[in-house]
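Researcher: Please translate sequence to structure tokens.
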Amino acid sequence: MKKTIISVLFALFTLVANAAVPDSIQRNLEDYDYLVSFTEENYAAFPVIMEQGYRKKYETLKKRLRKQVAKGKAGIEKAACEYAIWFYKNFDTHYQLNNTTLWESYEQPVHIDYSKMMDYEPKPVSCKVDEQTWLVRVPSCVGKNPTSEWVQQAAKDYQESGCEYLIIDVRGNEGGSTDIWNPFIAMLVDHRREGAIDNFFRNTKHNQGFWEYALSMEPDNSYFKDFLTQCKDSLGKSEFLLWTSVDASEVTPLPLPKRAAIIVDNGTCSAGEGLISYNVKGGSNRAKVYGKERTYGADLTGNVYYTKLPNADIYLTYPTCIKQKEFLEHHVFGKNGIEPDVYITLPYPKRLTDNIDEWVLWVAEDLKR
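Model: Translation complete:
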């Protein structure tokens, strides 16, 4: 009898407690818990970040934000932004939120807005800087501005120019596909890399949606089809599957350029950074990175997918693939992106569009030294 009374009292207490929590807080908690569990289960870099020793910091952040949401001290927009910015700022800028008015205010202190400093609208350029130096400016890797055909022609034009020096300008390049750089690989690598760069896919049911979508865009792509089959067969057995492996030894280096420069800024992102991480770092003694700041910080992950929170109009975009070895060996907490090899001492140019600006001229002279 006593046990029955205790059970009834507990049930009544639970009902009263739940009734005291406003529906808005319940929805916020549902959204927050979804964001956290989804990240832990699907975000490619999450296990690696925890392996690096950041579990304690992460758990402290996670619990603090949930407590604020539960007490009504923070809405889901604020809590989600603070949760996401921890990954974005300290580890990987491929992890971010859309559809939230707060996100921009969190993101702005992390990256530089060059449009407030100059006429900043990089456009495709392929031309001589001087009799010895050729410039190729590629503001996007999406394949539209410029197209892959334009990049191929730019590579051909450089080869036919006879110039000993090459400048590839990727300032403001927000990424796309690293395949766009294929015509320039043999001009940048010049020796065998110590080890291949391996990209691993975090194999979850949700992440497989990325390859299903990719296959719907390219239904005849047998590589996508075979990999998706491998993912489905390995679900629950292998958390990470090897997606691609890049080795500089597969390329026969061309004799020119004698030296090359990659000009970057804080807006160089993803596949724009991939030009460096795949083809310069560890694979080239003739190419150096020039700039003032680190790049954007999305070079160690890729193949971005998304999810929506259950209630709020907030979308999470996150990478499904990661360069695990590079992330573990080269990542520095709170310092995303690629550090320039050569620091440009000039002030910022007044204009960066389809012009040959002051930085290009400075780099051209430095290459000859």
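Researcher: Any highlights?
Model: The chain has two domains: 23-107, 115-203+239-299+337-368.
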